[in-house]
């Protein structure tokens, strides 16, 4: 049986007394596009640093294609490509010079370097920009150069930390086209962190992290199917009074999330009609939607995805 692309077992991490990760366990199959999704402070960046061997692992086990990050660090680094959230380009060098610099770090030389550079510049639509100074490039073009650097040594796993940061929609689409190419054409496993719900929809599977805990793990559709039916959100000046009235008179179970009243139902239009007939005096606005990843997060944590939490 071939090893998993990534295996994470009982991983915890502390910054002093603050726990950033709490007993996280999961595995990622070869060729998956996998997203660690969570709000700021959820633990994504910490896990990324551990996966990319930037920080020592002290609790639990992480392996890349059967090689553990603690005992086979050099082999792991040969298997992974890393694209950081913060730019790593030398802005005073050209695109080609940045690539050559990366090649020197990994010992990629000669015809191999020429072939890899030609392929990457072509697929990332950078061929006509290879002699441009990095600081003259747009944010989207710089990100493409970062991707070229990360893939230069032909890694099996590509790790990307918040890769869409600072990119406009067109640049994001171009980046995702390239990630799909890597997966389908070269069999690369793509692992990225994100705080963008719409970006996570593109993944094969999602791991939702919140306050260092793994709170959900599945495909986007399967996670939303767990909610089921329709989601109704109500804006009201008296949330508790409305919740009590819905329970008492309609036997509907609702909850308060960030000053809004929220409930799930199999028959959204019919439930809205009943609510308005019974409690219209408490309703300022009411909306109906199919379950989203935001609803999954709310169901798992009891608060909105964008809501700040004090550590």
Automatic annotation (TrEMBL):
- Name a Pfam family for this protein: ABC_tran
Recorded hits in SMART domains, A to Z, give: AAA
Q: Which organism is it from?
A: Blastopirellula marina
InterPro entries xref list: AAA+_ATPase, ABC_transporter-like_ATP-bd, P-loop_NTPase
Q: Name one GO molecular function term.
A: ATP binding
Instruction: Give UniProt keywords alphabetically.
Output: ATP-binding, Nucleotide-binding
Kindly indicate whether the keyword Magnesium belongs to this entry: no
Tell me the ranges covered by the ABC transporter domain, including all copies.
6-236
Which protein, by its recorded name, is this? ABC transporter ATP-binding protein
UniProt keyword Nucleotide-binding, yes or no: yes
